[in-house]
Design the sequence.
């Protein structure tokens, strides 16, 4: 359920921290699912899961992670956040009757070790439609709402997610970012106004992508493991051109299928009849 305080704090800060969004059993199953994926080289595939070709400082990113098994599929419409996501993406009563309420345009696992980080990026000043924050006529209309799930405890030195609260409404670029031109591989540790969000395994952060965000550099041993599912309006498209496999769509519930692939093809009857004719 969406509370008045949820709406107020999200509007004010651009994010919500969802404590205990995943149960210990869910966290265990998800970590085991990640362990089952071999450490393939950047650009290689494991079934329908693809290791993204990223800068070395950003660690490992496994795209299309909802293809990695049932524990990941369950996250598509997880009750800990799906109603909040629908509320902040908005559009209820407009095109949701045709396509569905929301659409996942990207979903991935991120694994980072010591020395790895991602620089602060985004911010309201960019005005990007895909990631925009907007509130109009009593409703939120956000282009992209992210759910970032912690699969390990993330405390001091663990490379936690960093955000600048309120920056989703900023009109000006952060002066440090403008001067330093911080790359995506540099950490956000020394950016004034940025705060590090500490999480326990099973916690999640809901945030609008327009907020300036990144991560601190991990200095501790071990791995920081997170999952990110990005939701937006159903008229959007896949960020990197991935599409869900036929096998995944067959396994999903109708509600999940509407979020993973909300479009239905329409062709003239004679074309469809010809397509179904045996060769």
Sequence:
């Amino acid at each position: 359920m969406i509370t008045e305080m949820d709406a107020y704090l999200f509007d004010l800060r651009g994010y919500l921290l969802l404590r205990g969004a995943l149960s210990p059993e869910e966290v265990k199953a998800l970590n085991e699912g990640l362990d089952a994926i071999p450490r393939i080289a950047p650009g290689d595939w494991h079934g329908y899961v693809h290791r993204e070709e990223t800068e070395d400082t950003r660690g490992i990113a496994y795209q299309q992670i909802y293809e990695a098994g049932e524990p990941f599929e369950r996250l598509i419409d997880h009750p800990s956040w799906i109603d909040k996501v629908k509320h902040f993406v908005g559009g209820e009563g407009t095109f949701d009757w045709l396509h569905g309420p929301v659409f996942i345009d990207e979903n991935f696992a991120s694994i980072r070790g010591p020395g790895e980080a991602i620089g602060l990026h985004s911010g309201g000043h960019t005005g990007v439609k895909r990631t925009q924050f907007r509130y109009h006529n009593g409703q939120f209309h956000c282009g992209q709402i992210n759910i970032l799930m912690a699969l390990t405890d993330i405390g001091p030195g663990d490379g936690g997610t960093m955000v600048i609260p309120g920056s989703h409404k900023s009109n000006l670029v952060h002066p440090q970012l403008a001067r330093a031109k911080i790359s995506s591989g540099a950490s956000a540790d020394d950016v004034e106004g940025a705060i590090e969000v500490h999480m326990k395994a099973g916690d999640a952060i809901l945030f609008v992508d327009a907020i300036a965000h990144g991560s601190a550099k991990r200095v501790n041993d071990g791995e920081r493991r997170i999952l990110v599912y990005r939701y937006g309006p159903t008229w959007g498209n896949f960020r990197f051109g991935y599409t869900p496999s036929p096998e995944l769509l067959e396994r999903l519930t109708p509600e999940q299928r509407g979020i993973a692939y909300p479009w239905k093809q329409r062709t003239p009857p004679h074309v469809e009849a010809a397509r179904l004719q045996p060769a």
Observations:
- The chain has one domain: 4-276.
